[in-house]
Write a structure and sequence with these properties.
12% helix; 49 strands; alpha/beta; 12-stranded parallel β-sheet
Length: 664
Amino acid sequence: MQAKLKWAISILLAVALAFGLFVALPHSRGASSLTVGPRTNTADDPAGAIYVSPDGNDATATGAVGAPYGSINAALAAAGPGGCVVLRGGTYYEHSNVRIQNPNVTIKSAKGEWAVIELPLAHDPDTYKQSSAIRFDVGSSGGKLQGVEVVGGFYAVCIETKWDWGQPDRSGASNIVIEDCILHDSRNDVVKIKPNCDNITIRYCEIYNSGRAYAASPSFPTGENNAEGIDNVNGDNMVVQNNYIHDICSTGVYAKGGAIHALIENNRIERCYAAGIMVGFDTSPEFFDLSVNPDYYENIGGVVRNNLVIDTGWEGIGLYASRDAQVYNNTIVNAVVYGTGNYHTPLYFGVANQDWGNPDGCPPNLNPAIHHNIVYQPASFAGQMIEIRYVTGFYSPGEFPGLASYDLSALDGMPTMHDNCYFVVGRSASFRDNRPGSLLSGAGLTAWQAHIGGDMGSIEANPAFDADYFATNPLCEGMGIYGEFVVEPTPTPVPTPTSEFTPTPTPTPTPTPTPTPTPTPDDAVVYNIADFYAGSGFLFLKHGDIIIVGARRYRVLPGLSEPYEIAYWSQGSLETAIAWWTDYLDSYVESGVLELLPPLLPGDANGDGIVNASDAAAVLRYLAGLGVLDTLGRLNADVTGDGVVKADDAAKILRWLAGLVEAL
């Protein structure tokens, strides 16, 4: 065994040296720091763009670069659906919403220039909710805001919905990208995402100074003024990545109200008077979609990874009425010590009260997975490292007929936890579970591990941060933030089933020869029908997207009008769904829309059909930014099965080759 281990280590070293790498297992740090905030504006202005300038004139404008508009809204009207409005450098005082009403419209600063859109804070109680500086109306799906600074407004950016229009269609503006922007000094939230506004991506932005309406209030530094950096209520498949979010009146970012599959990663979040990140929180009952979320979960399938959270008044990361949340490889520094509120614990299981009047809802967190995080607390911190909350007698007797007593628990069962690092300067960490059936108070790490039957591999140790908050203590290897997970990671969104759907017939296939496999784009999305077979709706597919049906995998071929819509509807069981989807998608293979891919070969990262040391090398090169893995390569490479490609996978491949593990 010892000889085999030495042989495996020699392979690792040989691979690292051969490719100019030296990677400390179990993961590579990647870049020297998180890449956050706006990137340099080097994108070319598209042909046919409509130009605006602070010196422009709406009366004489043609939209050409030499005859620009003076008003952004006038330029938007001229651009129409699919248009691009290019802002020359300078400040624009619109005195009303910049209101995007057409689909697939882009607003961007001119190449190499910087435009500022400023709207004074609104105070009129009859109009303030309409007075967002940038407003994506319900017809604006597919829009983009790129390389622009937005100052002021009730919300700096608001994404609108039909949710409360009283009509069967309750959709919202969706598939919107906000990138490389600076957004700040809003009256309330900086970015507001309303119900059914799905697939919103916010990346490489700087977001700060929310809640200017409350700045003079004595309660401002308590975190209780409800003005988030990013506030998502029931918007699915949100992606928040590579942002610098700071100086926030309450919470840096949360996804609540039944938000499904939110991905929050690679962000630096600091100086928040409430929490850094919340997976769920508190939402009024009328904003939940009970057709897909009958139990009122605040967040379903949320992923929080690789975030640096510094200086919060409440928890660094909190979970409220979440289901299947994943929280891993985050670094939390100085939580529950900023401002004057100082509530909760650095990692916190909270309860959702949902307006104090929803006895059918307010579920406990269910099935959270928390691992490879670092929590570092200063000597002034005297609280618990983790707390599980429990509220007794939440409703008074007689408040609801037939409901004599009602308690709220923050957690169902025990959390899945392992390989975390806890450190409090000058004392030991302590942990608390307030639930009557599993009381634990002021316990140390060993007692906590025994109590939950988990958190194995976790330690108490000083991570010895470097200037970028990476741990240099070898005991913390694999814990806390990486440099990056990937440059621009793409989530695996689950289409949101709708409550009303009339199925359309399966297309009549036109037999054609099976096409030759084609390369998969890096931004391909992987859909697994096991995640949504019980719902109904559409898949909106583009070239390279992959659909997994049991052991079969289908890929979208190029040459189609994108997005390509495939309708689906609910199946009674997963077994029935696999049979139904197989027949369904095979017809698309015959008609040339999809191709059937070979089965996955765990470990075959480079796709050559065999598993050897070159696959481990491909993983290491990918992590170091020296190579690319396509979608199938990433699926094959994830031999540890946690959904992320990392150096643990390269190590496992090599250990398998050395005979140290039985299977990949």
